[in-house]
What does this fold into?
Amino acid sequence: MSRAEAVRAVSPLWTLGLLRSELLTTFRRWRTLALLGVLAAVPVLVGIAVRIETGDGSSAGGGGGGGPAFISQITNNGLFLVFTALAATLPFFLPMAIGVVAGDAVAGEANTGTLRYLLVAPAGRTRLLLTKYATVMTFCLVATLVVAVSALITGALLFPLGDLTTISGTRISFSEGLARALLIALVVAVSLIGVAALGLFVSTLTNSGIAAMATTVGLLITVQIVDQIPQLHAVHPYLFSHYWLSFADLMREPVYWDDLTRNLGLQALYAAVFGSAAWARFTAKDISA
Amino acid sequence: MGEASASEQDGEHTGGGVITTRALTKRYRGGQLAVDGLCLTVPAGSVFGFLGPNGSGKTTTIRMLMGLIEPTSGTAHVLGRPMPRSARAVLPHVGALIEGPALYGFLSGRDNLLRYDAADPTADPRTRRIRVLAALDRVGLTAAGGKKAKAYSLGMKQRLGLAAALLQPRRLLVLDEPTNGLDPQGMREIRTLVRELASDGTTVFLSSHLLDEIEQVCTHAAVMARGRLLTQGPVADLAAGARGRLVVTTPDPADAARLLKEQGVADVVADGERVTGEVPGRDLAEVNAALVTAGVRVRGFGVERASLEDAFVALTGEGFDVAG
It folds into this structure.
């Protein structure tokens, strides 16, 4: 058994090596970069549209009536483009991107057959699934930050920057506004954890990456529609998207925490339920692709 | 940890084989019986040919051995430990090529190997790059290592898949159809590689539907058809199961056939200048002397060994077709 002893003891840091490999693989995919590119373009388009609309001196959104939250404030302060862009991408663009990446995470590798080689390496099913989930959550954060940074740069280039007024009417300094923008971006990223867990679970059900992506995005659209139907208000508090726009409460003075904490609790619930379901499914699955 | 006692226990019912299965059975959810009561023993140090037509259950067996699918019933032990339960302890010692290579098309060949090596908990990240280069060199892909894998030909993909199996020193290599998609030169290189690995003491489990390939490199073989094991043993014994034939090449076939019958050769068939018959019990030198003494001009005289293909046909009573 001399050769058995020659095999290295497993380093506890090995999981980090696997995570690094997983992140590199995900972020070198052309599809991932295209999704981030689309997300980066949204704030630029919104910024240019607002700039053109208000070129004659009128304010955008007809004095704050329509359009995404905060849009009427952009001309006064470019920082509001960050909030507007996040409010505009959170209902669909961001979760769709997450759905694509999460749906593809396991099913895509099963489809190309690379999953079986990772498992005989042996990466270990639980560890591989955790690594995949960590990667999808990293993508949530990166995607959100891409929107926020793109919006900040566009806002700084097209509009003036300075102190800003909260929803409650109090004024805060630009640096505090910037800190709140970062906090909001983090809350938005956390809001996507539920979709990520759902997508990963769907991904363990099929060997087709495309089917998993389509199912996840389909579920997202269905949930958004159900959330709009007043007769179904009984289920609304359980829909992962129901409290998404609560991030705006961070712009109140003092911050209104109720919906924010409900949102975080709901995302944790989704992560626990669908994370467990994905684990139960993936660890017992016959890998026949 | 009590691991020593556990492995001793396992050793009892593995009989020293590198792979041992007992009544291994897999029934898929549709009710289809893919593998039916398989009892396989792969001796340590052998080059073991796993033979059978497409659809005979070879790949399902390999997937069960690698812990990818759960058996419906029966047990499988690899390197003395039960699978799939001991996958984490066993699989680092096993290099595998299962149902063809699978690669990340958008990564270079080298990056594909780095990725697979990162998935192995026992692989040392400090030597990763060196081992990847060595594996690429071993399969002749050094020049193409930087190219994107999607630009690879089928043969190059196959070589990269083999390189992934060779990233670490292994005690067992499981190679499912390793020469698939390779040209004759590539096939010969793979055969040489397999022999090299075997001479280093690695047990090689090689599945194939190419009989002559098995015959050329394998010391042992097993034959499967329709999910059942037909036979297993040393290749020489299997081929001996089908008897060879005496072949005489001569410009006088009629005389030769008559004389051979007189010499006690049964089942004599004359086909042009070739006269064949069952190998008689007596000394072949005397048979030849008798032919020459009688004035039969002999160009060639010898025994043609039965091929594994003859053995296979004798076993299954049929050709080498796809099972339904």
Observations:
- The two ends of chain A are 34 Å apart (CA to CA).
- Residues 1-6, 60-65 of chain A have pLDDT under 50 and may be disordered.
